[in-house]
Amino acid sequence: MAKIYSKKAQAAQNLKPKKEVVSFLLNYSQALSIVKIENKSFEIIAN
Amino acid sequence: MADLHIPDALLVKKYVEGNESALATLIKRHESKIYGFIYSKIADRDISNDIFQDTFIKVIKTLKSNSYNEEGKFLPWVMRISHNLIVDHFRKTKKMPMYRETEEFSIFSIMSDDSLTIEGQMIADQVEVDLKKLIEELPDDQKEVLLMRMYQDMSFKEISEITDVSINTALGRMRYALMNLRKIIDKHQIILTN
Predict the structure, then answer these.
(1) Which of A18, A33, A43, B119 has the smallest count of CB within 10 Å of its CB?
(2) CB of B114 within 8 A of CB of B165?
(3) Which of A5, A8, A13, A16 to mutate to test the interface with B (most CBs of B within 10 A)?
(4) Residue A10 confidence class, pLDDT cut points 50, 70, 90
(5) Do residues B72 and B142 both lie within one domain?
(6) Is residue B58 part of a domain?
(7) Cβ of B36 under 8 Å from any chain A Cβ?
(8) Distance from CA of A24 to the nearest CA of B (A)
(9) Is a pLDDT exceeding 80 seen at residue B137?
(10) Cβ(B61)–Cβ(A36) under 8 Å?
(11) Residue B113 φ/ψ, nearest 5 degrees
C-alpha cells in the first residue's frame, strides 16, 4: 500500500492578522510624523 | 461603509493628506490578501503577524514621507514589500553558522561522515540477505504480517483489514514471528551484526 505523505490540507480559512497588530499599526500611524528638512528626514513619534 | 467603494489610489491620497481613517480602510480591505500571502509562505501565525506589521510600518513610513508615487498599484506594491520581508526572514533563519578551525578546535569534530564504509555496507547487505532467508522459514501467517509491517510499513490496523483478522491476532502473529526468528537465530548460532 502506498504511503501517504501529504498532510491534511490546511482548512481554507479567511486568514486575518491579529486585531492587536492592526490597532498597533493605526496607532503607530497616528503617532508618526515625518519631517523632511533639506535632504534629511526625521521621524517623530508622539506619545 | 461608503469607503469601500473608494479606489485605493484615492484612499492613499487621502491618507497622505492626513486622513488616518483612510489607512484603516486600506488595511481592512487588503489585510486578508496580504496576511494570507505571508502565511502561505511562512506557515506560522506569529511570524506572519510580525511580517504583516513590518510591511505596514514600511508602508506608513513611505506614505508619510511622501515617497510613494505609483498610484493605482497599491496592493501589488504592498505585496512586493511583504515579499521582500519574507525573503529577509528566510535569509536570517537559514543563515549557516560559521566555524573556523583553530588549534584547540578541529572542524572535523563537528563534521562527520555517517555513511557506511564499503565493509559496513557489505555487512549490512549480507545481514539483509540472511534475514530474508530466515523470514522465509516462518509460518505463512506470521511471515505475511511481518513483511507487511516491516517492509511495507503498514499499520496493524491496515494489516488486520487486509488479512481479515482482528488487530490483536495481527499483533500476536507479529509477536510470534519475532519470537520464532529469535529462536531460529539462537538455534543455528547465527550472528547478525553491523
Answers:
(1) B119
(2) no
(3) A16
(4) very low
(5) no
(6) yes
(7) yes
(8) 8
(9) yes
(10) no
(11) -105, 105
B interface test, pick of A15, A24, A41, A44 with most B CB neighbours within 10 Å: A15
Better-predicted residue by pLDDT, A5 or B135: B135
Q: Which of residues 24-43 of A touch B (CB under 8 A)?
A: 24-26, 28-30, 32-34, 36, 41, 43
User: Distance (Å, rounded) from C-alpha B30 to C-alpha B78?
Assistant: 9
For residue B100, tell me if it sits in a domain.
Answer: no
Assess if residue B109 is contained within a domain.
Answer: no
Q: What does the block give as the cell for B177?
A: 514471528
- Whether A38 is covered by a domain: the verdict is yes
pLDDT in tens, B43-84: 888 999 999 999 999 999 999 888 887 666 899 999 999 999
Contact at 8 Å (CB) between B38 and B82? Answer: yes
Residue A36 domain-assigned (yes or no): yes
List chain B residues with CB under 8 Å of A14. 32
Q: Provide the ipTM.
A: 0.73
Q: Is any Cβ of chain A less than 8 angstroms from the Cβ of B61?
A: yes
Q: Which chain B residues are within 8 Å of A13, Cβ to Cβ?
A: none
Range of the domain at A41: 18-47
User: Kind and range of the H or E element at A45?
Assistant: strand A40-45
pTM: 0.54
Domain of B124, in residue numbers:
118-187
If asked whether residues B16 and B71 sit together in one domain, one would say yes
**Residue B42 placed within a domain:** yes
Per-residue pLDDT, A3: 61
Q: What is the 3-state secondary structure (H, E, C) of B1-41?
A: CHHHHCCHHHHHHHHHCCCHHHHHHHHHHHHHHHHHHHHHH
Q: How many domains does chain B have?
A: 2
